[in-house]
Design brief:
3-stranded antiparallel β-sheet; 35% helix; 7-stranded mixed β-sheet; binds CU2-O2 cluster; 3 domains
Length: 650
């Protein structure tokens, strides 16, 4: 990286570090003090927004520092978007940087972190910049209250500490068995960054950045979270997650044991709690929206807000339109008519124990993308949405032989290394967890968590090809048996497949051995560098003693690589591995051969600056009904059993 990039990298990490403390980095403070956006209006593309932001700030109308920022709150979001647009439309790095320094000491911390992160992910001049891990920037959203309390105690004593973080709940709560998944800080970061890469409030026209197949990806990424959650449940003798219903009790309660920096504990919900009407959202509203969505699905037609125009959902774009309607994303074809089923449900669940705000409780875990997956209700809600989408997918014709078959290509065999999982310890740096109000210097405090990992493994696919041909290799995995021990039929199992990998490879005529490593997967990312490691690397790179490679497509979204495989069982658990080779000439979208190289986690996260690199529907070929298994199975596919063993004494 050149010095210009290193400087930018360094500044962004500094801006996102110690955000809760005023006047932290002297150089940035100096900029902040002297800077006035109104004196530089010609440095912004969007002058009106800048003026409005400054005016509202002066009038004390913006969310104050220290208060809880809730993206689902329309007013909080409106203000955040003012800041985002001010940052995003700054004409050059210098203006962007100065604006960020200015905002850091003036705007609410949550709004600042979110707006700056989304702007950094999307500005052309900050492409490739690495954000510090979300769990370090905003640790309160990732660790439990007990850790925060002990961290304070350690700081008061001025002693370095490693604090063991337990999962929430007790052995009496069966859901506790898979808390390692829902509470994994990597899964939570993946989910929160996904929603920064694909914000539901994104304005494509205004921002000039198209979000290719956003509605479809909203479905697919969450669908994959559910298939993964279910595979973990079966690994722990729990039945698969059931869908939430508005009129039925929310069976599992949840006690987050997590606290806001200011504003108290996250609200807890007892078992079997019912949905409640809120002041501004009623259960009947959700039901009405859902009724209309179901009608659109069963008729295969959505009604657009533009002159009530009729839009067919039976095209390949149908899923994308439907996903946007359900989320709802700002590009929903008719937000007034179809509402915002999913977003409203997040709010309903987040406020369920204080529906009228009588007790002034802070937002629930469901109201932050950083914390949502901790709550079992998150998976129940998304299962409900997944069922809606399945109704749509099931209404489409099954793939024909021609659509599945690739002439002259045959998969002869698939070999897989031993699949072994285990738990390991991981330390989270708590450098941002504590206020320096007491004037005490920082000490080194870590939170130690348990997390799932697996041994690296490889897959070797032996395939014959009649001629030279580039193919897309699609790898999936699903539990072979259900909770009752029955073998799952393919047409049911297809909806449970976890996508493990997808990549393009050139076959030569004759026999080919395609070898692929688990570390290369298109759904995962490695651990991000910690804030400290990142700063050190940048310092060393500036001094010339280390080098930092710039990856313009660097991704923060992606399932942690250590969670590629579900846990399995001590004595082994059987899964079906499914491999398909499809014709890359038909699949390709961007410039060959880089289609699957845009950031390493394209399958679940798409790309930020290019089109989704696969023309096939997401989840292909398992997304549609399989009415005749013999028709479905073509020579360019391969099914085999594999076993995953969990090693408890790693
Ligand atoms: Cu990701 Cu509901 O969209 O949490």
């Amino acid at each position: 990286a050149d010095n210009e990039f290193l400087t930018k990298q360094n500044e962004i990490v500094k801006l996102l570090n110690k955000v809760h403390e005023l006047n932290f980095y002297q150089d940035q403070v100096t900029i902040s003090k002297d800077y006035d956006p109104l004196a530089h209006l010609d440095s912004y593309k969007n002058v009106r927004v800048v003026k409005e932001l400054v005016k509202e700030l002066k009038n004390g109308r913006l969310l104050h520092r220290g208060e809880i920022f809730n993206l689902f709150n329309a007013e909080h979001r409106r203000e955040m978007i003012l800041l985002f647009e001010t940052l995003f439309f700054a004409n050059d790095w210098d203006t962007f940087h100065k604006t960020a320094c200015w905002a850091r000491d003036r705007i609410n911390e949550g709004q600042f972190i979110y707006a700056l992160s989304v702007a950094t992910l999307h500005r052309p001049d900050t492409r490739g910049i690495r954000l510090p891990p979300a769990y370090e920037t905003y640790p309160h959203l990732f660790v439990t209250s007990q850790v925060i309390h002990e961290a304070y105690a350690a700081k008061m004593r001025q002693e370095p500490a490693v604090i063991h973080m337990n999962f929430t709940g007790t052995v009496r709560n069966p859901e506790q068995r898979i808390a390692y998944f829902g509470e994994d800080v990597g899964i939570n970061s993946h989910h929160s960054v996904f929603h920064m890469d694909w914000p539901f409030w994104w304005n494509e026209e205004k921002y000039g950045v198209t979000k290719d197949r956003k509605g479809e990806l909203f479905w697919y990424m969450h669908h994959q979270l559910i298939t993964r959650f279910n595979a973990e449940r079966l690994s722990n003798d729990l039945n698969e997650v059931e869908a939430l219903h508005w009129e039925k009790p929310i069976v599992e309660g949840f006690y987050p044991q997590t606290t806001y920096r200011k504003g108290g504990e996250f609200p807890a919900r007892p078992d079997n709690f019912q949905f409640q009407d809120l002041k501004d959202i009623r259960i009947a509203d959700l039901e009405a929206y859902e009724e209309r969505i179901r009608e659109a699905i069963s008729s295969g037609i959505a009604i657009s807000a533009l002159n009530n125009e009729i839009i067919s959902l039976n095209s390949t774009d149908g899923i994308n339109i439907l996903g946007a309607i359900i989320e709802a994303s700002s590009n929903s074809v008719n937000p007034n008519y179809y509402g915002s089923l999913h977003n409203l449900a997040h709010i309903m669940l987040g406020r369920v124990v204080d529906p009228l705000g009588k007790f002034g409780m802070p937002p629930g875990v469901m109201e932050h993308f950083e914390t949502a997956t901790r709550d079992p209700a998150f998976f129940r809600l998304h299962k409900h949405i997944d069922n809606l989408i399945k109704e749509h997918k099931d209404s489409l014709l099954p793939y024909t032989h021609e659509e599945l078959d690739v002439d002259g290509v045959e998969v002869k065999n698939v070999e897989v290394d031993d699949l072994e999982t285990y738990f390991e310890e991981f330390d989270i740096d708590m450098l941002n967890a504590l206020d320096d109000a007491a004037g005490l210097p920082d000490v080194d405090i870590k939170a130690r968590v348990q997390r799932l990992n697996h041994k690296p493994f490889g897959v070797k696919i032996i395939a014959d090809s009649a001629a030279e041909k580039t193919v897309t290799v699609r790898l999936f995995l699903a539990p072979k048996y259900d909770w009752f021990g029955r073998e799952v039929q393919l047409d049911v199992q297809r909806w449970k497949f976890i996508e493990l990998d997808k990549f393009a490879v050139k076959l030569h005529a004759g026999e080919n051995a395609i070898v692929r490593k688990s570390s290369e997967s298109s759904v995962t990312i490695p651990d991000p560098l910690s804030t400290r490691a990142l700063r050190k690397l940048v310092d060393d790179a500036i001094a010339g003693s280390a080098s930092l490679e710039v990856d313009k497509d660097y991704r923060h979204c992606g399932v942690p690589d250590r969670l590629l495989l579900p846990k399995g069982k001590e004595n082994g658990m059987k899964y079906t591995l499914f491999v398909m080779l499809s014709d890359f000439e038909e699949d390709k979208v961007n410039d060959l051969p880089h289609d699957y190289a845009y950031g390493g986690s394209v399958s679940y996260c798409g790309t930020i600056n290019h089109k989704y690199p696969d023309k096939k529907p997401m989840g292909f070929p398992l997304d549609r009904k399989i009415t005749n298994v013999d028709d479905f199975k073509v020579t360019n596919m391969y099914f085999r059993d594999v076993e995953i063993k969990f090693n408890p004494i790693h």
